[in-house]
Amino acid sequence: MTTAVDLRAPLARYATLLHAPAGDRHHVASPLGAWLLGALCAPAAATVGGQVAEDLERALGVELITARELATALLDDPHPAVLSAAALWLAGPPIPAVDEWIAELPATVETGPLPTQAEADSWAHEHTLGLIKEMPLQIRPETLLLLVTALATRVSWARPFTLVPATRLGATSPWREAVGQVLETPSHGHDAYVARVPGIGDVAVHTGYATEGLRVTSVIAQPGTPPVEVIAAAYELAVASATRGAVDRRSLFDLPLGEGPLWTITEERVQTAAPGGREELHQAVLPAWSVFSRHDLNRADLGIPAAAAAAKHALGIPDGWHEARQVAMARYTRLGFEAAAISAMMAGVSMPIPQDGVRRTAELRFGHPYAVVALADRPWRDGWQPDITEGAAWLSLPVFSAWIAEPTEAAE
User: Which domain of life is it from (predicted)?
Assistant: First the structure.
């Protein structure tokens, strides 16, 4: 089984693509949530083959079979600090190609008939700890498929921040007048340092550790650095720190004293047991923040059009429509961190365009004795159940039959 380690580099690349359109706008996203959306379509794309398979493979950054294995490993064995879920809902009777696709999905992926909008919104609320109230897509009458992934977390810092005046953000900070108080790291339970990043230069890094096993890394670069480059650096530094990889940490003794845009370095005489008598201490001051974002996922570089093409091929509607979006939120406070994202892809067949024509109507009258037969079939709850495990032997079996020869009065 392929391990999640293989996903780190492809996911970092995927993240730069997803974040790029947002530019410098305040936003949050879940690249993993969107990536999983495409990965869950990998079995269907493998069946289609050709350009569809190639496009999805290129976007996901791994082979389709690897994407399927990674999705299974993540969803079937979730991290204790991250609530994860996925669902594939369908309208219409069972289709062999779709049944084969479902058989290849992770065991934890919920499958069943297409829900109502209220039911879909309730699912989003339930699987995001109540942080997201509704689906990013509105189900249409012609919708045949809805594929969703959900990721959510709510954790507490191992050591909470303390509150300090916003002036501590520095004389050049545009936020020093926007808020009254900000967060300062305690003496332990957090990590802060300066690192050199190729192509960007020196950056300030802070990592907060949650008791539930989550770590949240913040990275700030010089003003004017393209956001997508800083995001890429944050992915690299966070992974390297977590895996004990190479991080080019800068000694404070190699940096100039005084105030700069990212830090202030001071020096004082102290008693220390540090090697060479050179002790280094790092603190961090950050604002609390909260954000809610929407993202259009229907982009070729994210692989969603290819994933949708595979899904539509399985449904037998290659010329049908599709759309995909993500909603995400996050909140960073003195006590902890919470975040959630719902990524959704929907597909269907377009309603025919009305045109001038002729209509004939037949009124059928059951005016004399006639027969009735009732037989067992798949349940219907806003769509046919794709499969049932109980009473399978009853399918298409006549259960009741009648001959109607004595009508009764129809009452209100």
Answer: Bacteria
Q: Is 190 exposed, middle or buried (0-12, 13-18, 19+ CB in 10 A)?
A: buried
CATH of domain 4-156+289-348: 3.30.497.10
Q: What is the mean pLDDT of residues 348-359?
A: 72
Q: What is the average pLDDT score of the chain? A: 86
346 with 137: CB under 8 angstroms?
Answer: yes
Q: Where in the chain is CATH 3.30.497.10? A: 4-156+289-348
pLDDT in the model for residue 374: 59
For 230, phi and psi rounded to 5 degrees?
-70, -40
Q: What are the structure tokens assigned to 377, written together? A: 């079939």
Q: Give the model's pLDDT for residue 2.
A: 42
Residue of 349, 363, 353, 367 lying closest to 407 (CA atoms):
367
Sheet with 201-209: list strands edge to edge.
190-197, 201-209, 215-220
How many Å apart are CA 83 and CA 187, to the nearest integer? Answer: 30
pLDDT value at 126 more than 50 = yes
CA–CA separation, 327 vs 135, rounded Å?
8
Contact criterion met (CB below 8 Å) for 169 and 182: yes
Whether the CB-CB separation of 86 and 109 falls below 8 Å is answered with: yes
Q: What is the pTM of this model?
A: 0.85
* pLDDT value at residue 40: 97
Q: What angle do CA 368, 374, 377 make, to 5 degrees?
A: 150
Lowest mean pLDDT among 111-115, 164-168, 370-374: 370-374
403: left (phi over 0), alpha (psi -120 to 50) or beta: beta
**In the β-sheet with 83-90, what is the strand arrangement from edge to edge?**
110-113, 83-90, 143-156, 336-348, 321-332, 289-296
